[in-house]
Amino acid sequence: QVQLVESGGGSVQTGGSLTLSCTASRYTSATDYMGWFRQSPGKEREGVAGIPIGGGDIYYADSTEGRFTISLDPYAKTAYLLMNSLKPDDTAMYYCAAGRWHGGVWYAADVAYWGRGTQVTVSS
């Protein structure tokens, strides 16, 4: 079992910035990719950004590329998501995720472990 502990999140105005962090209790063979998904009421959970633990391609959703930056401290088992130029559409519960990525869209079905989630609210 892998525990994912998130921190960060909160409320900001449009154009503001927030940083999320997520620390994993350990790595496993089923978790070579870490990152975040988000979900707002009535919508499916969507991949936001992901980063490989051992190096490789980084994933960004089209809606976040250019505004969000994901990074990883592999020794601390901690991933960071810097969110700039936030918009009201970014309002959602953000979930840390650990699993695999097969290229293309990062799907929730490829996630083996989830954090409890942290709320991000962007007001206009």
Which word captures the global form? globular
Q: Termini separation (Å)?
A: 40 Å
Q: Beta-strand level of the residues, as a percent range?
A: over 45%
* Secondary structure: number of strands: 11
**What order do the helices and strands follow?**
EEEEEEEEEEE
Class based on secondary structure composition and strand pairing: mainly beta
Poorly predicted parts: none
What's the Cα radius of gyration?
13 Å
- Report helical residue fraction: under 10%
For the report, how would you describe the main beta sheet?
7 strands, mixed
Calculate the mean pLDDT score and round it.
95
Count of DSSP-assigned helices: 0
List the topology elements:
Blueprint lengths: L3 E5 L1 E4 L4 E7 L8 E7 L6 E7 L6 E2 L7 E6 L4 E6 L8 E8 L11 E4 L3 E6 L1
Parallel strand pairs: 2-11
Antiparallel strand pairs: 1-3, 3-8, 4-5, 4-9, 5-6, 7-8, 9-10, 9-11
Could you characterize the architecture of this molecule?
- With 124 residues, this protein is an all-beta fold.
- It has strands at 4-8, 10-13, 18-24, 33-39, 46-52, 59-60, 68-73, 78-83, 92-99, 111-114, 118-123.
- A hairpin with a 6-residue loop joins strand 4 and strand 5.
- 32% of the residues are buried.
